[in-house]
């Protein structure tokens, strides 16, 4: 291995080891996402399902019906 590459590799390895040691000694405090992440995700999924369930079942929307071929023009009246 070339001396420059070996020096770069040892620098990277030393940096990773330093970061791992620093993080291991720090007390982990839960963030907002740790505390409420799953609850917010489930709440959003519930609201999404409820709103689209209402749209698909209660609103009188005719999906995919085209008037092409079913409407004929009436005669011109002068």
UniProtKB/TrEMBL annotation:
The lineage of its organism: Eukaryota, Metazoa, Chordata, Craniata, Vertebrata. It is a single-pass membrane protein. Belongs to the cytochrome c oxidase VIIb family. This is Cytochrome c oxidase subunit 7B, mitochondrial. GO terms for biological process: mitochondrial electron transport, cytochrome c to oxygen. PANTHER family: CYTOCHROME C OXIDASE SUBUNIT 7B, MITOCHONDRIAL. The keyword Cytoplasm does not apply. The keyword Transmembrane applies. It is found in: Mitochondrion inner membrane. Its main location: mitochondrion. It comes from the Eukaryota. GO terms for cellular component: mitochondrial inner membrane; respiratory chain complex IV. It comes from Taeniopygia guttata. The chain crosses the membrane at residues 36-55. Pathway: Energy metabolism; oxidative phosphorylation. InterPro entries: Cyt_c_oxidase_suVIIB (IPR008433), Cyt_c_oxidase_suVIIB_dom_sf (IPR023272). Pfam families: COX7B. Keywords: Membrane, Mitochondrion, Mitochondrion inner membrane, Transit peptide, Transmembrane, Transmembrane helix.
């Amino acid at each position: 291995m070339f001396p420059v590459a070996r020096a770069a590799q040892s620098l990277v390895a030393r940096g990773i080891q330093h970061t791992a040691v620093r993080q291991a000694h720090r007390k982990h405090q839960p963030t907002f996402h740790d505390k409420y992440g799953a609850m917010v995700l489930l709440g959003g999924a519930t609201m999404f399902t409820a709103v689209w369930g209402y749209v698909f079942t209660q609103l009188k929307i005719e999906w995919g019906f085209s008037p092409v071929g079913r409407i004929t023009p009436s005669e011109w009246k002068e």
